[in-house]
C-alpha cells in the first residue's frame, strides 16, 4: 500500500459498505451484511495512513441505532469517531463541513449515489462510485471512466477474469457468449495497461463521466434494441437527436448505453413502443465476473424435473387447487391496483411508482399482508437500497426450512409505472399496474397462502421458501439487482428463483403463456434454469390443465427475447438458476408458435383489470413448482 498519510476517505454505508436489512416495522436495522471485500480494503487504507469517516443518511433511523449496527457488523472501530456524520447529503455544504473536520489535503467521498457525488465534487472532494476504486481516486482524481473490455479470440494472456479481478476494474455488465465482453469502471492508466495486455479496450465517454452518472442499457424494440426517445420532448425524437444525445456512450445490438447524470431520472427515457423490460441499470458489482462462469463453485441444481413432477400427490394437488383460486387473486390485484381500498382504514394505492408516495404505502401493506398470511411463521424483513436519491425497499418473507438445505424463491415486482402516457407525472399521476405487476404480486401472495397451508397439512422435510417482492423493477431491475448482489456475496444457497411478471392478460382462446430461462453469458446458468422450465412444463397438465403447454425460451438456435428483461435475470447474473413465467409477451419461439399477445394497456393508466382465472392458473403452476423444488 502506498503512503496515504494526510488523506481522508468518507464512505456511505448502504449499498457501499454493506447491504441494509430492516425489521418489518422499518424503524430498526435487523442486520448489516458487510460486502466481503470491505474489511480488507478499510484495513489497507488505515495501514497506508489514511483516516476513515462515514457520511450517511439514516433517514428515520436514530444515529445510535446505526452506530450499534456498525458495531455488531465489526466496522465501528475502523472509523475516526469525530468523522462519523449522519444526515442528508443534498448540498455541497455537508461535504465542506466534513472536509474541514478532516483537515487533510486529500479528502474523498465513496458512495453509490451520483447526486451525492456531485455535491461532494462541488465541495472540492474527489469521489468514487465504488470502494474498490477508493485508492485510485486518491492517487489520480478525475481519471475514472467507463470502458468496454473485449477478450479477443485466442487471447494468450491466461485467465482474463483473474486479470481483471486483480486490478481496480469494477464490472457493471457482462455480455456476449461466454461473457467475453465486460463493461466496467476503471482509471485511464489501468485502461492503458489493459491495452498493453492485448485486450480490446473501448473508452466510453469522458474521463470524469462515472463521477456523476449512473449507466443504463436502454432498448427500443422498434429497431431491435438501439434507439429510444426523451420524454421531455414531444414523444417522437430518438435520444440521438434529443436532449439526452450527449449522454449516449455507445450504440450496440443490445441497445444504447446511456450515462444518466445526477438529477435526471431514467423515467425520462421511455420509448413509446418499447417492449417489456426496456431498460437496465448497470450498477458496479465485482461478483459479476465470478457469476459469468456459472457462479462460485456452481450454484446448486435440482434433480430431474419430470420424475419429481410425477410424484405430486393427490393431497398436494387438492391444497394447491383450493388455495390458488381466481377470486383470491382478483382481491389482491384490486387492492394493489387501487380498485378497492388496500386496508381497513380505507387507504387506496393510486400508484406504486417509485416516485409516488403510495409506493411506501404498498411496501407497508405488503409487510402487513405477509405477517397476517404467515400467522407469525414467516420471517418478514425489508431490504433497503438507494436509487435516484431515494431510499427504497424490497420486501421478503421466509418460511424456514426443515431438514433440507437450500432456499427456493418465489418472486414478483411491486412497483408500477404509466410512463407510456404522454406527459406522465410520476409523483402525482395514477399508475395502477394491474397486470404489470399486481398480477405477479397477487401470485406471490397466493403462493404464500398455498405453501403455508401445504406445510401445515403435510409437514414434510423441505428447504426454506422465501417470498420476495422487488421494488424499482420499472427503472431497470434496480431492486432485484441489489438483492441478488447481496445474496451472492452472502453465498446464499438459492436452488431456484421463480419470477412472475405480467401473468394477467389473455384475450385469445389459446391460453398461452411463456417461460424464460435464457442467459447467454453463462451456459451453465442457462442449463440449470432450463431444468426449472422443465419442472414447470411437467407440472402444467396436472396443476393447470386449462393452460396450453408453455412456450419455453430459449429453444434451439433461437435466443430468449426476455433475457435481462425481468427480475429473474438479476439472479442469472449472480450464477443462480432462475425462471420467468409471463403471459404471451413475445413472438415465438419458432415460426409455428402463436403470435404475441402484448397487453395494450402496458405502462398506461388504463392497466386496471386482469383475467383472474388465467393469472390463477399461472400462479398455481409456479406455486406447485416452488413446492416441488422445496420438498424433493
UniProtKB/TrEMBL annotation:
InterPro entries: HAD-like_sf (IPR036412), HAD_sf (IPR023214), M28_fam (IPR045175), Peptidase_M28 (IPR007484). One of its GO terms (biological process) is proteolysis. It holds the Pfam family Peptidase_M28. SUPFAM superfamilies: HAD-like (SSF56784), Zn-dependent exopeptidases (SSF53187). GO terms for molecular function: metalloexopeptidase activity. Residues 394-612 form the Peptidase M28 domain. This is Peptidase family M28.
Amino acid at each position: 500500500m502506498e503512503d496515504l498519510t494526510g488523506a481522508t476517505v468518507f464512505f456511505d454505508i448502504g449499498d457501499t459498505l454493506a447491504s441494509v436489512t430492516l425489521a418489518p416495522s422499518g424503524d430498526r436495522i435487523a442486520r448489516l451484511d458487510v460486502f466481503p471485500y470491505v474489511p480488507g480494503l478499510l484495513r489497507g487504507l488505515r495501514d497506508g495512513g489514511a483516516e476513515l469517516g462515514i457520511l450517511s443518511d439514516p433517514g428515520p433511523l436514530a444515529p445510535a441505532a446505526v452506530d450499534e449496527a456498525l458495531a455488531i457488523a465489526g466496522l465501528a472501530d475502523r472509523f475516526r469517531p469525530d468523522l462519523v456524520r449522519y444526515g442528508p447529503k443534498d448540498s455541497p455544504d455537508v461535504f465542506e463541513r466534513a472536509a474541514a473536520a478532516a483537515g487533510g489535503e486529500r479528502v474523498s467521498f465513496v458512495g453509490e449515489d451520483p447526486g451525492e457525488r456531485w455535491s461532494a465534487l462541488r465541495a472540492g472532494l474527489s469521489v468514487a462510485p465504488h470502494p474498490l476504486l477508493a485508492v485510485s481516486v486518491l492517487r489520480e482524481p478525475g481519471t475514472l471512466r467507463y470502458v468496454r473490455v473485449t477478450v479477443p479470440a485466442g487471447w494468450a494472456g491466461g485467465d482474463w477474469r483473474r486479470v481483471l479481478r486483480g486490478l481496480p476494474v469494477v464490472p457493471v455488465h457482462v455480455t456476449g457468449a461466454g461473457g467475453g465482453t465486460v463493461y466496467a469502471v476503471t482509471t485511464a492508466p489501468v485502461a492503458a495497461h489493459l491495452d498493453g495486455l492485448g485486450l480490446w479496450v473501448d473508452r466510453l465517454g469522458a474521463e470524469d463521466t462515472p463521477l456523476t452518472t449512473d449507466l443504463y442499457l436502454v432498448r427500443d424494440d422498434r429497431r431491435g434494441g438501439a434507439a429510444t426517445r426523451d420524454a421531455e420532448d414531444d414523444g417522437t425524437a430518438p435520444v440521438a437527436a434529443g436532449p439526452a444525445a450527449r449522454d449516449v456512450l455507445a450504440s450496440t445490438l443490445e441497445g444504447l448505453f446511456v450515462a444518466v447524470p445526477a438529477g435526471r431520472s431514467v423515467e425520462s427515457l421511455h420509448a413509446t413502443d418499447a417492449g417489456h423490460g426496456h431498460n437496465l441499470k448497470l450498477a458496479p458489482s465485482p461478483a459479476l465476473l465470478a457469476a459469468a462462469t456459472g457462479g462460485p463453485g456452481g450454484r446448486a441444481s435440482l434433480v430431474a424435473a419430470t420424475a419429481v413432477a410425477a410424484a405430486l400427490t393427490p393431497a398436494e394437488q387438492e391444497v394447491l387447487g383450493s388455495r390458488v383460486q381466481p377470486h383470491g387473486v382478483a382481491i389482491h390485484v384490486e387492492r394493489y391496483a387501487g380498485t378497492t381500498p388496500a386496508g381497513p382504514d380505507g387507504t387506496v394505492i393510486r400508484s406504486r411508482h417509485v416516485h409516488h408516495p403510495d409506493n411506501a404505502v404498498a411496501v407497508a401493506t405488503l409487510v402487513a399482508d405477509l405477517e397476517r398470511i404467515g400467522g407469525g411463521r414467516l420471517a418478514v424483513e425489508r431490504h433497503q437500497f438507494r436509487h435516484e436519491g431515494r431510499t427504497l425497499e424490497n420486501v421478503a418473507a421466509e418460511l424456514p426450512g426443515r431438514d433440507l438445505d437450500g432456499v427456493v424463491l418465489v418472486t414478483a415486482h411491486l412497483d408500477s409505472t404509466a410512463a407510456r402516457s404522454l406527459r406522465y407525472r410520476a409523483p402525482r399521476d395514477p399508475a395502477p399496474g394491474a397486470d404489470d405487476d399486481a398480477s405477479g404480486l397477487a401470485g406471490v401472495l397466493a403462493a404464500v397462502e398455498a405453501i403455508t397451508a401445504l406445510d401445515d397439512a403435510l409437514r414434510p422435510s423441505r428447504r426454506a421458501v422465501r417470498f420476495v417482492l422487488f421494488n424499482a423493477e420499472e427503472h431497470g431491475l434496480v431492486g432485484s439487482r441489489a438483492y441478488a448482489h447481496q445474496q451472492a456475496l452472502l453465498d446464499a444457497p438459492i436452488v431456484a428463483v421463480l419470477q412472475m411478471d405480467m401473468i394477467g392478460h389473455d384475450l385469445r382462446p389459446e391460453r398461452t403463456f411463456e417461460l424464460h430461462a435464457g442467459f447467454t453469458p453463462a451456459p451453465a446458468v442457462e442449463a440449470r434454469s432450463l431444468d426449472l422450465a422443465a419442472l414447470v412444463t411437467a407440472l402444467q397438465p396436472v396443476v393447470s390443465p386449462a393452460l396450453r403447454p408453455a412456450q419455453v425460451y430459449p429453444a434451439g438456435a433461437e435466443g430468449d427475447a426476455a433475457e435481462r428483461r425481468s427480475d429473474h435475470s438479476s439472479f442469472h447474473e449472480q450464477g443462480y438458476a432462475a425462471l420467468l413465467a409471463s403471459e404471451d409477451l413475445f413472438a415465438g419461439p419458432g415460426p409455428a408458435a402463436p403470435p404475441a399477445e402484448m397487453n395494450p394497456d402496458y405502462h398506461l393508466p388504463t392497466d386496471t383489470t386482469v383475467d383472474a382465472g388465467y393469472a390463477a392458473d399461472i400462479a398455481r403452476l409456479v406455486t406447485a413448482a416452488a413446492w416441488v423444488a422445496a420438498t424433493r
